[in-house]
Structures are given as C-alpha cells and as structure tokens.
C-alpha cells in the first residue's frame, strides 16, 4: 500500500532514502503473567499481545491504526518507539532498530499518548518546552522558530505561563503535541490524541495535523476510536485485533468488509409514518417525530439527506458514525465462520 502524501528532505545523517520508513516484519510480543490460583500458589501463563504482525508505512504517509481495546495498538507503538522489545520478528524505523538504538531513534520520532502526558505537571507549559530544548539539544534558532510556529498554530500563546496541572484536557493535549514536535521528528505516533476533547479542540488538532503532514511531510501513525479522525486525516487504515492485522486499505473498504452502517437521525416537524428512504436506507426506529435510518457507511449521506429534505418537513438531522468495535467484531465473526 502506498498512499504517500508528500515527503520532506532527508535530514543529515539519515539512513538512506528508501520510501519505506516503518517496517514491521513478523513481529510478536508475548508477556508472561502470573495468576493466583490458591494459597501461596501462582500460575504462570503467556499472553500474546502482538502476533506475527507485518506491515510497512511509507515516508510522509498518514495511517490510521485502529482496533478494540486490548487489540495490541499501544503495544505496537511502544515497540516502534523502543519502550518495549519485540519477542520475535524484525522491526525498523528509518532503518533503526528501536530496541537497540532507542536514544538515536528518539531524535527522529515524536510521541503523544492521549491518556498520559510528557509535560512536567507542576511547571508552567513554557518550562516543559525549555527542558525539551535542552534534552534534545535543539539549536536555539530552530527551537525558537518551531516554538513560535507551533504555539501559534495550536493557539497556546496565552497558556505558556500556566502550570500544566491547571490546563484542561484539550489544552494539555495541544501542549503535548507541541512538545512532541519541537525537535522536528520524521514520524509522529499519536495514541488517542483527541480522546475527551470537545468539538472545537478536535477540529483544531485535526487541522494542525493535516497541515503538518502537507507542509512538512511528517509521517503519522494514528490510533483512535474516533472514526472521524481517520476519515478526515488518513487515506489508509489498518485494523488490528487479538494482535493480528485484519485489514489494511482505504476506510471505505473497511466499511464494506465489515458491512457497517451509519445512522441518520431525522427530526421532523411533526410525527409521520416511517420515511420512504429508497433502496439504500431503511428506518430502524421511530419515536414520535424522530426517526433513525440506517444506510451503508461506504456511501455518502448527501443524496439521502437531499431526498428527505425535499420530501419531508425537516426540523433537524445528524449523522452517527458506526461503532468501530462493532465493525471489527463483524469482520472477526465472518472470518471465524468462513
């Protein structure tokens, strides 16, 4: 799968100019856990978090990496950053083995974990950035330029002197993204970057990531439960479940493979019989003037909305995205019965 959206020049000392930037080949990660089975007795068993996982990501590509909780997404990212060592297989990022050369790789990557911060909790935001400046040995001019640009793009100027512990979740998330990008990484790993954010904060983060990829060619690997993140940012999506890659391709293909449906919630001006939605949609629920219509997630909602607006007294409507865990469960069930 290509899907390359752009590329930036290789930095000095980079390891070759091959299009493949991330390479995962037959990677496994097995954890040994102990379970109490009786008085002073514990049983050891192995949990395979990642199982024979293989994929490549091209330089400058934005890829959605999704799956249900416990599927192995965060474990994969931790191996890609060198936090965890694979139990088997081969893994390279920019030609570097993350577990063997973690310090060297750190200057090439940026990481944002949505539920954990890399900022210093009791310090003002700007102090965390000054520490990053020293830790990564960023040249002064480059640091100042990057800080000004990122702070402006993510609207953080008024928050630089605020202690991190006083920031809202959305403000802190934007602060973490700045921290991850101060040293101009070649690849950015985002683990649930919009979790808990309001609509405005989500839109701001998405716009920023789109601009970052377009202008600088930064490679982005994004894990999320919010399909709107994937739809607005990624041309390619990979689905992992039980540690195995189940799907790799465009989002429309995922919807087709999982036979997923979106829901159009229609509020009419008065109570009416079920809407005649045509062959591609069906009414699944009616409560007074509100009706719920299901239609294939791979199709645009625009024709359906236009038809209803032209033929019915419409007061309001909204589109609900399919639940990604339900889509994956359907795919998994189909494979099990195949």
From TrEMBL:
<dbReference type="InterPro" id="IPR003593">
    <property type="entry name" value="AAA+_ATPase"/>
</dbReference>
<keyword id="KW-0813">Transport</keyword>
<dbReference type="InterPro" id="IPR003439">
    <property type="entry name" value="ABC_transporter-like_ATP-bd"/>
</dbReference>
<protein>
    <submittedName>
        <fullName>ABC transporter ATP-binding protein</fullName>
    </submittedName>
</protein>
<dbReference type="InterPro" id="IPR027417">
    <property type="entry name" value="P-loop_NTPase"/>
</dbReference>
<dbReference type="InterPro" id="IPR050763">
    <property type="entry name" value="ABC_transporter_ATP-binding"/>
</dbReference>
<dbReference type="GO" id="GO:0005524">
    <property type="term" value="F:ATP binding"/>
</dbReference>
<keyword id="KW-0046">Antibiotic resistance</keyword>
<keyword id="KW-0547">Nucleotide-binding</keyword>
<keyword id="KW-0067">ATP-binding</keyword>
<dbReference type="Pfam" id="PF00005">
    <property type="entry name" value="ABC_tran"/>
</dbReference>
<feature type="domain" description="ABC transporter">
    <location>
        <begin position="22"/>
        <end position="267"/>
    </location>
</feature>
